[in-house]
Amino acid sequence: MGHSMGWSSILIPGSGEPNFDTWVANPFETSKQRREKEIHTLLDKLPPETIMLDPSKIGTVRPYKKREKPTKEEMEAEKEAAVEAVKDIALKKKTKGRNKTSKRVMKRKVLIDKAKKPFIEKEMQEAGKLAGKRKLGEETELPASLKRFVRKKAAV
């Protein structure tokens, strides 16, 4: 610093390096990083002898377990159980005009339909899979109006 008597050096705290101290916790860390850091610190505290992996499991592949499809009767029973569970739900008493019989019936019908929806979607997927299993070489006859959009095979 220069002044009328010459120059002198002074020390100003915080005017040094613009980077924050790396030994201090990261002020911008996310919750995932914080969890990861916590795990690392805990593992560093443990002696390496206590951390063990089962050597017979390393390098092995877990066998694929084929799921058995539920039978149609089991699916129907599940669907009926879901519908019965929804039917047993007690609806709230609403204010005047909102508790009409027709509105209660409609609300119950919507709840039943919501309970049936996953089962119906599953049935549709299975039906789609069965219909989608056609032979690759099999060609379907298109109507005349759509034939102009079919790609022509390249002459060999």
UniProtKB/TrEMBL annotation:
<dbReference type="GO" id="GO:0000462">
    <property type="term" value="P:maturation of SSU-rRNA from tricistronic rRNA transcript (SSU-rRNA, 5.8S rRNA, LSU-rRNA)"/>
</dbReference>
<keyword id="KW-0677">Repeat</keyword>
<keyword id="KW-0853">WD repeat</keyword>
<protein>
    <recommendedName>
        <fullName>BING4 C-terminal domain-containing protein</fullName>
    </recommendedName>
</protein>
<keyword id="KW-0539">Nucleus</keyword>
<dbReference type="InterPro" id="IPR040315">
    <property type="entry name" value="WDR46/Utp7"/>
</dbReference>
<dbReference type="GO" id="GO:0032040">
    <property type="term" value="C:small-subunit processome"/>
</dbReference>
<feature type="domain" description="BING4 C-terminal">
    <location>
        <begin position="1"/>
        <end position="55"/>
    </location>
</feature>
<dbReference type="Pfam" id="PF08149">
    <property type="entry name" value="BING4CT"/>
</dbReference>
<feature type="compositionally biased region" description="Basic and acidic residues">
    <location>
        <begin position="70"/>
        <end position="79"/>
    </location>
</feature>
<feature type="region of interest" description="Disordered">
    <location>
        <begin position="51"/>
        <end position="79"/>
    </location>
</feature>
<dbReference type="GO" id="GO:0030686">
    <property type="term" value="C:90S preribosome"/>
</dbReference>
<dbReference type="InterPro" id="IPR012952">
    <property type="entry name" value="BING4_C_dom"/>
</dbReference>
